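Protocol step 4 of 6: structure prediction from sequence.
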Amino acid sequence: MSDSPARAYLILLLMPLFFAMNPVIGRAVVDTVPPWTLAFLRWFLASVILLSIARASIRAHAGALRAGAGTVLVLGFLGMWVCGGLLYVALQQTTATNTTLIYAGAPVIVVLLDALLSRKPLRPLQAVGVAMGIAGVAAIVLRGNPGTLLSLRLNPGDLWAAIAATAWAVYSLVLQRKAIQAVPTLVSFFAIAAAGTFWLLPFAAWETWREASIPTAPSAWISVLTLAVFPSVLAFSAYQYGVKAVGPSVTSVFLYLMPVYGIALAITFLGEAFHWYHALGLGLVVGGIALATRSEMMDTMSGTEMRGG
């Protein structure tokens, strides 16, 4: 099947569902498997899966991977250490619903950082969209009560989740570097996952030394394997494919489906409550993303049509 906008958009519709599984499964299992151990096992298994799928291609592009080792290490730290281990630390202290909605603000941060780095001023609608997105995340973190900020009663888990969302935005931009774009998606993703496993290893070893954290229950291993396959191999591969096929701004637009999927999963499988400030935050974040990324998406789609896609 040839690469086409239709194929890219179909893959990108599934991508946020796979990503949304991470906070839900993570919240369910993080009390059984400590956060750094959970992240390490997830990405170690993902690396093994990727190696088995793309071994020949990885060997063929070994030189390019060595040349881009610095970028790969940065991406492994951002994507797997911060957005993996630190996110699971957050899930020990907050809900999957909160984490999903906060993470949904990442596309807005992508637009803001992209404008700052390229030194291009935001268009008026983009500026409004960025402000709405940030306000939506703030509504969730503050539980709809600005007095929470004044009394310093913020939930640390929500703050860690916000840091992880920012790291994801930086990851999305670093992913555009030539060293990564020059090799096939599965090859670069294997290298990034392996680098992330490297960053996570000492923290997982510390947890194992402190509390014998390696899981023994079959249900825990099923959860770890599910994390390795769906929100890891499939979700990240789909994301990197989207960045190459339609660009980071358009790819990030599809992440606004993540809160829809994530909330449905959290309510169905974890029994979490959906509060009014979640609805407010969801509306602001999704509306903000739509405004902030509309022009990039239209430009990309127009360019694709001009190329006969």
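Step 5 (inspection) to follow. Residues 300-309 have pLDDT under 50 and may be disordered.
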